[in-house]
Design a protein that fits this description.
It contains 2 helices and 5 strands. It has a single domain, classed as Alpha-Beta Plaits. By secondary structure, it is α+β, with helices and mostly antiparallel strands. The chain is 27% helix and 33% strand. It has a 5-stranded antiparallel beta sheet with strand order 2-3-1-4-5, covered by helices on one side. The longest helix has 13 residues. A hairpin with a 2-residue loop joins strand 4 and strand 5.
Length: 84
Amino acid sequence: MEQYLMITRSLTYAQRMEKTLSRAGIRTRIFRAPKELTDRGCAYAVQVSHANLNTVLTMLNGAGLGPLKIYLIRSGSYIELSNR
């Protein structure tokens, strides 16, 4: 299963994303965004382990909670994906 990292603008925004995904049974983890992934001082990241990223993004966008950036985590490195 692939791991995705979604960058958000604040902790509150990340918590709202977590709550939305949790209701659908999708587990997440919230933490400060790695410095190399953002130029925003207060950015947070929501990590998702879910095979269908489109489903996750559809739920978040439907709730008005689209992420700023999305990364695929592979072998300890981050690969930026287009923000669908």
